[in-house]
Amino acid sequence: MSKEDRLKWIYSSKDNEELAERYDEWAESYDQELEEDYGWQIPQLIAEELSHLTPRSSRVLDAGAGTGLVGRYLGALGYSDLVAIDLSNEMLNKAREKSVYGEFHQMDLAETLNFPDDSFDAVVCSGVLTFSHAPAKSLNELVRVTKPGGHLLYSLRTDAYESMGFEDITRGLDADGKWELLEKKGHQSFAEKEQEVVHDIWVYQVL
Ligand SMILES: C[S@@+](CC[C@H](N)C(=O)[O-])C[C@H]1O[C@@H](n2cnc3c(N)ncnc32)[C@H](O)[C@@H]1O
User: Fold this and answer.
1) Fewest CB atoms within 10 Å of the CB: 69, 110, 134, 199?
2) Cα(144) to centroid of ligand 1, in Å?
3) Could you identify the atom of ligand 1 that is nearest to the CA of residue 30?
4) What are 44-86's pLDDT values in tens digits?
């Protein structure tokens, strides 16, 4: 399947069950197609950004870890206390092969996460907050499980910010004094193809 068809197929999933099934099917060739052929850059950019903010001993949640690309970069940077969650078990199985995460949990970011408040020093979320995937309200949960003083880094396609309700959720978290924006920067998502696609990487400190 071409990447255009693959993404259409992914984005046209009618519910989370179908989305998980489709990612299960894509898991085997995901790294080859998205990283090698397209040069998906966001996992590396998020991992590098995190490394400037939080010590190597930090407990880090990779929310929507997929095949574990962010974890692979974090592992190479010296992080070893990594937890992966994802909707798709087959994507998590591919993440297991990276041998960098200590825990794997099948969880839905649209629901209450099965972690106590303030569980993680940092939370990263790459390529997950988007159409037909995890909704804007997931941010409330990601903030809840991050320790005060900890960091939350996520990518968001620029065209999803208003249309998916991220603006409202962001304003609510601002108004409630839950976090402080440290940086928001646009990045070309793919190095090799579709170079017009841009993701913002949002970097917050949780309060
Ligand atoms: C484009 S992949 C990104 C994977 C990885 N973070 C990366 O940057 O390569 C999106 C991942 O989000 C997961 N996902 C989508 N919706 C989700 C949800 N509601 N809860 C948890 N995971 C979700 C998918 O199963 C898939 O593994």
Assistant:
1) 110
2) 19
3) 9
4) 999 999 999 999 999 999 999 999 999 999 999 999 999 999 9
Which of 128, 156, 164, 197 has most ligand 1 atoms within 8 Å of CB, for mutation? 128
CATH assignment of the domain containing 187 = 3.40.50.150
65 CB-near residues (< 8 Å, 6+ apart):
71, 84, 85, 86, 91, 92, 95, 101
Residue 102: which domain range? 3-206
Q: How far is ligand 1, taken at its centre, from the CA of residue 63, in Å?
A: 8
Q: Are 86 and 113 in contact (CB under 8 A)?
A: no
Residue 60 neighbours by CB under 8 Å, 6+ apart:
50, 54, 74, 79, 81, 82, 83, 120, 121, 122, 123, 124
Q: What pTM value is reported for the model?
A: 0.97
